[in-house]
Amino acid sequence: QVHLVESGGGLVQPGGSLRLSCATSESIFNIYTMGWYRQVPGKQRELVASIISGESTSYADSVKGRFTISADNVMNVITVHLEMNSLKPEDTAVYYCNIKGTLGLPYDYWGQGTQVTVSS
Fold this sequence. Notes:
mainly beta; four-stranded antiparallel beta sheet; 0% helix
């Protein structure tokens, strides 16, 4: 079982920046999507940003122009980053990393979640 280990959350003032990272515990193959989701209490988890087939990126309208998703691949150990700029209080949430793919059977791995709080 591959584990995704997240880091980089915390408290930041409005207008500030944070960088989230998510590393796989071992090599991983045949990835289809890598993404970051976020969730606030009482609401559904929403997709914030994703990389599809290692090439194209997609962003929620609410974060376009402010967030950037990227990934590093070192011998198929993957680290997915989310650079968050111009943060707003409404960006406050628990952020989750996700990797989906197929290796015979489909797989769908999630990180443990990291809290991002934007407040003065």
